[in-house]
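$ ./design --mode recover --in tokens.txt
reading tokens...
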């Protein structure tokens, strides 16, 4: 977010009968005005930002979706997203980014604070700003406090979906991802917003 100071504006033409200056300007100009410019949202995304018909429950487990950074330059993300169905039970969710390979996630890079899940819409989960290297493989992970159903595309075979083998109590993410089933190919609807 950037702030700009804007001073008084002097009229170039003098109109008869009117003060040649704007109100508050002249020999004793008014104090500068502070204008706030909103930073543009990140325009890119990696992952799966569409809603499929199937759903997957992930209470007491960590679910993750693998993504590859196809650009020739690194990108930065500070937000993860997932779609949650209204069949879920009210509770909190957490998101995280893991390094890894196409064989599975390995090391935790960043994680979110817990936040309440919102049903029947995309949930945006802020994470600390994280650089994703060009040509590298990463995993977008989520966990839920209560029974939560996210979208999963069973008609697609282009994904890398991962689920921990053992249950995991809702809380901070482990620094190293626990063992899980070999990655499947039906993607979870997880994505990361990216900026150049």
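writing sequence...
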């Amino acid at each position: 977010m950037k702030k700009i100071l804007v001073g008084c504006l002097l009229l170039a033409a003098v109109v008869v009968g009117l003060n040649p200056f704007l109100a508050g300007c002249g020999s004793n100009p008014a104090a500068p005005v502070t204008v706030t410019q909103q930073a543009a949202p990140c325009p890119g995304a990696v992952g799966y930002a569409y809603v499929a018909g199937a759903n997957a429950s992930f209470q007491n487990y960590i679910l993750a979706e693998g993504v590859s950074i196809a650009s020739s330059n690194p990108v930065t993300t500070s937000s993860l997203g997932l779609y949650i169905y209204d069949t879920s039970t009210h509770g909190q969710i957490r998101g995280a980014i893991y390094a890894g390979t196409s064989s599975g996630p390995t090391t935790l890079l960043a994680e979110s604070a817990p936040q309440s899940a919102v049903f029947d819409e995309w949930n945006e989960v802020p994470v600390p700003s994280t650089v994703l290297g060009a040509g590298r493989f990463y995993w977008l992970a989520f966990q839920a406090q209560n029974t939560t159903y996210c979208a999963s595309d069973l008609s697609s075979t282009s994904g890398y979906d991962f689920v921990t083998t053992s249950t995991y109590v809702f809380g901070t993410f482990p620094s190293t991802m626990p063992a899980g089933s070999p990655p499947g190919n039906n993607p979870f609807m997880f994505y990361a917003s990216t900026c150049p």
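exit 0
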